[in-house]
Design brief:
By secondary structure, the chain is of the alpha+beta class. It is built from 3 helices and 6 strands. The protein has one domain: Nuclear Transport Factor 2, Chain: A (Roll), CATH 3.10.450.50. A 6-stranded mixed sheet has the order 2-1-6-5-4-3. A hairpin with a 5-residue loop joins β4 and β5.
Amino acid sequence: MSLKELGERLVEANRNGNVKELFENDYAADAVSVEAVSMDPAAGRETRGLDGIRGKHDWWEENMEVRTMTVSGPFLHGDDRFAVIYEGEAVDRKSGDVMPLHEVAIYTVGDGKIVREEFYYTMP
């Protein structure tokens, strides 16, 4: 699969709320996910491996309700990276706080699979 095709699959999966379906075929088993800041000081900013990345997504779905989401891209860079822009609004399920979402994600690809994802965003 080409870089463009992989990026398009990821964007479409995010638009449809099906990103977890990509983990088995489109992510490397040892993929790394890096947040802009640590949400859990004990865990740090980096999550390694598919089980950890799945856990991050499970946590998000359990704790946040996405009200709106626009996904733009992919924006290709060379032959091994692409960016995606996420914009929308989420609500913390526990507190009810509304949070604007403005995020850029950079995905690195190796051997046709996502090997690294990095998220850039502002914190409230």
